[in-house]
Amino acid sequence: MLRGRGSPLTLGAKAGNQGNAMLGLMQDWPLLCHRIIDHAAANHAERPIVTRSVEGAIHATNYSQVRARALQLAQRLERDGIRLGDRVATLAWNTWRHLEAWYGIMGIGAIYHTVNPRLFPEQIAWIVNHAGDRVMLVDLTFVPLLEKLELPTIERYVVLTDAAHMPQTALRNAVPYEQWISEVDGDFAWKTFDENTAAGMCYTSGTTGNPKGVLYSHRSNVLHGLMANSADMKGYSSRDVVMPVVPMFHANCWAMAFAGPIAGASLVMPGAKLDGASVFELLDRFKVTCTAGVPTVWLMLLQHLESTGSKLPHLRKIVIGGSACPRAMVKTLQEVYGVEVIHAWGMTEMSPLGTACTLKPEHAALAGEARLDVQQKQGHSPFLVEMKITDDAGKRLTWDGSTFGRLKVRGPAVARA
Asked: Is 249 in a helix, a strand, or coil?
């Protein structure tokens, strides 16, 4: 029966007969990052994306509009001569413009290079020059910083604002973003290329020497975004309102710029103001359900809540990483404000998610200090991240929570050595 004309087994053997190997009949569907924003625009077109703009006002858009403007940006970059593999730097906060810039840059096979403004100026100059960035997209906040740096590879500075807010600047070929992209009509198609093509770049300072550049591929970003949405990691859905407090320039935004659109979640982008009062205003006003960031942000939020007597009725969970989260912070957020805290660990070289401390069934009944004992740990790795510890000779050691050794990690979103 399986030998019948046109049977799946026969077709598979003919299509993929390589020695004794047989290929499946599934379509070749490269994992390119533009598919993420295409999916969000097709299935969640009107889902809100709200930003506290750098200029000050609240700006509202949606996935459909972000995709359309990302296509405009891609078309504008191509007109300026940006091609496959070229680096486009961003020195910017979390805003709708920064989000559409990522997808527009990736959509022509160029590489978004997020530059961390919190580094020393000489480090920023070294990173941009080492990367060979050709275009710099910059928020108003950082224009004075860039005016002091020598960046000979930058051909044009695009200031992420409109003509009304454009500052006087001596930056080379500086232009306001809104004017720049308005010079094309957006009638454009994404480019096609291999899914292993570089999509993004983030430098990590490490512990010695100059910063090291980490290149993320389209494939790794897509897989990492899917992994981030698993239930034991961040677990977003289209019913969530997600606020990426972690900056887009920090470790690939912890996959939030991919996981949010993959899920079709609403996004709230906090812009430049990350003090406790400003963060609370957005959490409360837009009914944010999930967020993520480093402990210092949540310390400021807790101080604001204490001083005002405010509550967090909408927020369900916070992913905290970047540094160890104080036990008292976890306790207060959970017991006083009813917010689940997920302790996470990762590295820039891992895209960056590595582990998350979501509770397994054997911990579900724990309460009080016993529960906190577990939550202080870094948790467990998801599918697509494999971990082990070895001695200096490479011999595998017992994973028992107390044995010290060399931590080794591998996966499709982990950089090669």
From this structure: coil
Mean pLDDT over 246-259 rounds to 97
Q: In the numeric block, which tokens belong to residue 105?
A: 């840059």
State how far the Cα of 361 lies from the Cα of 355, in Å rounded to an integer.
17
Fold topology of 219-384 = Rossmann fold (3.40.50)
Tally the residues of the chain: 417
Q: How are the residues of the chain apportioned to helix, strand and coil, as percentages rounded to the nearest 5? A: 35, 20, 45
Question: How remote is the C-alpha of 12 from its chain's centroid?
Answer: 38
Q: Does 219-384 match 36-47+56-203 at the fold level? A: yes
Going by pLDDT thresholds of 50, 70 and 90, the confidence category of residue 171 is very high
Domain boundaries, the chain: 36-47+56-203, 219-384, 385-412
pLDDT bin (cut points 50, 70, 90) of residue 10 is very low
Helices and strands, counts by H and E, the chain: 13, 17
Class of domain 36-47+56-203: alpha beta
Span 14-70, pLDDT tens digits? 544 556 889 999 999 999 999 999 999 999 999 999 999 999 999 999 999 999 999
- Tokens at residue 197, please? 């093509």
CB atoms within 10 A of CB 22: 13
C-beta of residue 115 within 8 angstroms of C-beta of residue 127: yes
